[in-house]
Amino acid sequence: MSGKPPNLSRVPVRPNSCQMRGRVMQMRPEGDGAGVVWDVAVSAAQDVAGSPNFAARHVGDMIQLYVHPELAGGVSEGDTVSAMVSYRGDERGGRFAVVGEGVGRE
Which segments of the chain are extended strands (E)? Predict the structure, then answer.
């Protein structure tokens, strides 16, 4: 047996999504410049048929939401938004991201 640790593969989060609504409290550039990260105060997280809803337990809390630049839709801090979101990651961590058609302002 060699002294090397075993090569452990990452296990991705199972597919999930929900229709989330919340208020954008803060916006900042993504670390690598490929989008923005919003701090969103979640007010609702509606189930999508056949998909686990990982945001439901965050209603009333703040989450970090990654938004691709093409999906941001002219949103500003303080706006209330709704979007289809999914938690992406593995057992080491992850984050919510906007998926689908983009973000709607309310």
Answer: 18-29, 36-47, 62-67, 80-90, 93-105
Say how far apart CA 49 and CA 47 lie, in whole Å: 6
Q: Is 57 exposed, middle or buried (0-12, 13-18, 19+ CB in 10 A)?
A: exposed
Q: Give residue for tokens 């919003």.
A: 38
Q: Are 19 and 46 in contact (CB under 8 A)?
A: yes
Q: 94 or 33, which is more confident?
A: 94
pTM of the predicted structure, to 2 decimals: 0.86
What integer is the mean pLDDT of 58-69?
Answer: 96
Q: Is the pLDDT of residue 46 over 70?
A: yes
CA-nearest of 23, 33, 31 to 77 is 23
- Residue extents of the structural domains in the chain: 18-105
Q: Which CATH number fits domain 18-105: 3.40.1000, 2.40.50, 2.160.10, 3.90.75?
A: 2.40.50
User: What count of residues does the chain have?
Assistant: 106
